[in-house]
Amino acid sequence: MFRCGECGWEAAKWVGRCGECQVWGSVAEVGAPALRVAPGAVTTKAVPIGDVAVEAATSVSSGVSELDRVLGGGLVPGAVILLAGEPGVGKSTLLLEVAAQTARSGRRTLYVSGEESASQVRLRADRTGAVEAELYLAAETDLGAVLTHIEDTQPALLVIDSVQTIGTSDSDGVPGGVSQVKEVAAALVRTAKTHNITTILVGHVTKDGSIAGPRVLEHIVDVVLNFEGSRESRLRMVRSMKNRFGPVDEVGCFDLSSDGIVPVTDPTGLFLEARTIPVSGTCVAVTMEGRRPLVAEVQALVSAQETEKPRRATSGLDSSRLALILAVLQRDRRLRLSSRDVFAATVGGMRLLDPAADLAVAIALASSFSEVAVPTGVVAIGELGLAGQLRRVRDINARLDEAARLGFTHAIVPADTNSSLKKRPGLEILEAFSLPDVLDALRFRQ
């Protein structure tokens, strides 16, 4: 602040002449006084960490098995969970099912809808069978009204759909703005911790897929979940991005239909294309989503016509990772891919971010270029280095167990003398040191 030394007039920036007494040169900057905080009363006395009771923080099942898997066991009392996803992906349907299952177990649940009316939510609850006596519903957009509902109902689970639609008159801006979201989220977090209420906040996402609003929103909550899915597929996946009570990067799978949303405990078959005749340009990889091994099929198409400006298109794969694999394959002069269009995709809308899928992508590209099909019983596991060497991957035995369970007969893995590979009946393990060794063994050279 800047203050006039003659009359005390204040201004936000320096001026040469006082706007009140019209005296020149009397306005000077005033430093903020040093803040001194006196000791205050404490809420709870500090005790040794070994004497802190953990029973109050024991997780309770949400009634949805796949969500419990992602959360690390269930809903923790007093925890604040942020669930974000694109519009129409099924966030409200999933949380209405969680609210109904919680109410069905005898624990009171409050569902606050800021985007739909109460009658609209009731229609969806009738369709999905989520009408329960202990499930309370309120349509509010004011933070004060939401806090009043919480005091009146005393719920064990609180669902806010969504945090961007709730506003308060105590903060500047419109609902969904930075200041409003910060104030609303902070108030809900304080209420959750004070009353020991499990709170689930629905969050919007931006065009690039990141969570909308200030970054502090992700810091103050305990769990951040990302709800993913394609409009062309019924498969939905909940991915854990932050979890103070369980594993990170765990994944839960769901099937979304007109009758509601149901967990998919064994989603491996959704990412494979059922066929008996081998087709060129396909290969099967075993990826790890959290602690769960998933078998996914990779498909590639290398056009036969050479073009001046070749296209590179991906679906479910990282485009930069595909460029790396193409560069490694291009080192082999017999695989001329630089002037050809390349298309690579996964089956079932699966997103393959695991580097262990590099070998399967490379085999699919070489198979399409050479027009030589990979045998149907082969899976490929391995990370590809820039020099073409195969690097070892984590949880190799868990991946091989899943491949053997699904009936695959051959598995191509990196040659690693430090890891002890277990023998499995019906599954032959082929170890390779580099990508050229694999291509020569599969006869993909022309």
UniProtKB/TrEMBL annotation:
Instruction: Write out the residue ranges of the motif RadA KNRFG motif.
Output: 242-246
The terms under GO molecular function for this entry are: ATP binding; ATP-dependent DNA damage sensor activity; damaged DNA binding; hydrolase activity; zinc ion binding
Q: Where is this region: Lon-protease-like?
A: 341-446
Q: Transmembrane segments in this chain: where?
A: none
Q: Which Pfam families match?
A: AAA_25, ChlI, Zn_ribbon_LapB
Question: GO BP, one example?
Answer: recombinational repair
PROSITE patterns given in the database record: RECA_2
Similarity-based family: Belongs to the RecA family. RadA subfamily.
- Alphabetical list of HAMAP family matching this protein: RadA_bact
**What this chain does, per the record?**
Plays a role in repairing double-strand DNA breaks, probably involving stabilizing or processing branched DNA or blocked replication forks. DNA-dependent ATPase involved in processing of recombination intermediates, plays a role in repairing DNA breaks. Stimulates the branch migration of RecA-mediated strand transfer reactions, allowing the 3' invading strand to extend heteroduplex DNA faster. Binds ssDNA in the presence of ADP but not other nucleotides, has ATPase activity that is stimulated by ssDNA and various branched DNA structures, but inhibited by SSB. Does not have RecA's homology-searching function.
**What is the name of this protein?**
DNA repair protein RadA
What is the primary gene name for this protein?
A: radA
